[in-house]
Amino acid sequence: MKRYIPIITESDRELPYYLVQAGRNWNQEHVVRPNGYLYQWIQVVEGEGELRVEGKTFRVKEGMAMLLLKGIAHEYYAVSPSWIVDWVVFDGHQVEAFLKRTAGISSSGVLFISRPEVFSAKIQSILDIEQRDAPLMGVQCSNIIYAVLTYILQYTSTQPNNSASNLNIRLKPLFHYIEQNIAQPLTLEDMAAITDYTPQHLCTVFKKTTGIRIFQYINSVRIKKSKELLLQHPHMQVKEIASLTGFEDVNYFCSVFKKHEQLSPSQFRKIHY
Q1: pLDDT, tens digit (0-9, with 9 covering 90-100), for 80-114
Q2: Same domain for 111 and 19?
């Protein structure tokens, strides 16, 4: 078992994210905190445990992690002979905003991890910094905490195999399909069939993965293609370019183009020649 408890300076506390403690391959003991603690990321390496928080009980095992928010009462304990975890405790004035606004996490609980090794590597890098007694340790650890937070956004979900990174892999055939068929009508039903999702679930997954609605994405690809055609074929009519990029109505094409580029198609072509 390895553990690192840094000396936290006043300048460290002014950082947006700062390290409080970290450990690897820790045989987790029974913990009860009626008044909560700081922010904690505790991922399971081996064995099983249970987390009790906010009136709920979660079973936590390999491939899963507990994310505990600051000041929230909790209890966790092993239910197997040993419960080995990697963990990091952190704080900072930007943590709450990142979790709530960026990651959409507003309560403590359990997450499934698609790539647990990337978290373990970051925690190990904290221990390596401690061993080297590196300069600016607080700033380096702050960068690592930020990386861990971004990994939570990328590689975790409340359901198995549902992290943004895994969803992106499942959507790759759809991205290719859209690129190859951009001039054709693209129906939600046909696109759902590519991914084996229902049409409604595809909309949900696409928004979670990309941050935009699926038809917004399609329009952005169509506008990108139309810009290429406008420049490659200076004498091609705008109406024809609209048709080649999947817009049946030239007025709608011009409206979407202007929304994206703040210029009409003709103005865009003109300023590039």
Answers
A1: 999 999 999 999 999 999 998 888 899 999 999 98
A2: yes
Beta strands in the chain (DSSP E): 2-4, 18-27, 31-33, 39-46, 48-53, 56-61, 64-68, 74-78, 84-91, 109-113, 156-157
Model pTM score: 0.63
φ/ψ region of 25 (left if φ > 0, alpha if ψ in -120 to 50, else beta) reads: left
Same domain, 32 and 150: yes
Q: Of 126, 157, 188, at which residue does a domain stop?
A: 157
Query: How far is Cα 225 from Cα 229, in angstroms, rounded to an integer?
Result: 6
What is the arithmetic mean of pLDDT over 32-46? 97
How far is residue 11 CA from its own chain's centroid? 29
Domain around 217:
166-273
The span from the CA of 31 to the CA of 27, in Å, is: 12
